[in-house]
Amino acid sequence: MSFASTTVLKQEIEEFLYREAWLLDNYKVRDWLELLTDDIRYWIPTIESVFGETGSYREDVPYVPYVDDNRDLIEMRVIQLETGLRHSEIPVSVTQRIVTNILVDPAEREGEVKVHSNLQVTQVRHGDIETVWRARREDLLRSTNGQWKLAKRKVILLGSVIPRTLGIFL
């Protein structure tokens, strides 16, 4: 792949991630669903921490994840958010996402790319209760009908104890 095509690809991926952040920050979760493939896996594993040192996770160990959703479960969460049945999000949080350190690598299959990024989400509840989520993300994006779509997302939270109920998408 030439430098020019690599630069264009990176710009496309950055634009995808920034648009996704904007949609979520502006509570356009229904539009955000359009960015997901039908076979998406959205996964936030638990991270082991021993004596203050954050360990790692293993996909072959049966830890209970914070989130391990497919398309149907994500759509159910969106419906809960839209109808007020997502009790952890009443009233709806105000969020601001910052996506940084975006790296794009080839994936194993044609038309897919691996994307690594850092994420910080500031979440404000009830006007004054603030939580800051920090994470590394490992995404798999797939080109579908000329559009990039999110096929897999692994969110690796920094720290092993979450500060509050996780009712938002990271």
UniProtKB/TrEMBL annotation:
This protein's record includes keyword Chloroplast: no
Record family assignment: Belongs to the bacterial ring-hydroxylating dioxygenase beta subunit family.
Keywords: Dioxygenase, Oxidoreductase
GO BP term, pick one: 3-phenylpropionate catabolic process
Highest taxon listed in the record's lineage: Bacteria
GO molecular function annotations of the record: dioxygenase activity
Pfam families on file: Ring_hydroxyl_B (PF00866)
PANTHER family in UniProt: 3-PHENYLPROPIONATE_CINNAMIC ACID DIOXYGENASE SUBUNIT BETA, BLR3401 PROTEIN
Protein name according to UniProt: Aromatic-ring-hydroxylating dioxygenase subunit beta
Transmembrane segments: none
InterPro entries named among the record's database cross-references: NTF2-like_dom_sf, Rng_hydr_dOase-bsu
Gene3D superfamilies: 3.10.450.50
